[in-house]
Amino acid sequence: MAKAGTRSRCINAKAHVVKPHSPACERNRDPILAVLRRHFADRRHVLEIGSGTGQHAVHFAAAMPWLEWQCSDVAEHLPGIRMWLDEAGLANTLAPVELDVARGPWPGSRVAIAAALTPPLSRGRGREQAPFDAVFSANTLHIMGRPEVQALFAGLPDVLADDATVAIYGPFKYGGAYTSDSNRDFDGWLKARDPASGIRDFEDVDAFARCVELQLVDDVAMPANNRCLVWRRGIAAPLDNPVLVP
Questions:
Q1: Per DSSP, what are the bridge partners of residue 192?
Q2: Of 34 and 25, which is predicted with more confidence?
Q3: Share of the chain above pLDDT 70, in %
Q4: Which residue, 223, 114, 236, is CA-closest to 169?
Q5: Domains of the chain with bracketed CATH
Q6: Which residues are CB-contacts of 36 (< 8 A; sequence separation ≥ 6)?
Q7: What is the pLDDT of residue 16?
Q8: For burial by CB atoms within 10 Å, which of 20, 71, 123, 170 has the most?
């Protein structure tokens, strides 16, 4: 069962910011890293969507120094992410940027780049190629509502390279069925907290991915009844379009 992260109260006296901490990140980081090492081995620029505490970013960027890691999250989480990044002092992590997938603009997108260009006469040129050849997100889809999940995938084409890899970790249902009783209980807890949230159907999420020309290349069983789904852009769709069922 995926669990919502909890936060310890470690205070940065200078900035008066509570340093966030998620025990779940500590538990799942190494199994996720094993998947990312395979699929991000030839990647260079990663956008993490919903970086949360920043713990994953620090762990993965340290373990995969060939990657440039860009954290993103809603504004309220950025101070805590900055604390983790600043304390780690890694050369391959960039300052976190604000991203609400339902509102945008996305970091590195043509809209964001055009808005940042000066002088104003330069606006609108954008870049000919999107900068990120990898995207990672963990334990986010079940926190979002379905429209936000759809918006996440709909926003990807404007920031992805032509051969980009997308890896998403979390719990999923298959054929409308839970993979464990604990996931059923977790889904009930999520919906009691926010009726719009909940464990997503794999088929629904994969359909969103296919709409933006992402093809599923891996579906990895993870501890605690989670999965790590990996899609690749720029590859031909299989003729029978199989669904991988755990």
A1: none
A2: 34
A3: 80
A4: 223
A5: 23-233 (3.40.50.150)
A6: 60, 64, 136, 167
A7: 65
A8: 71
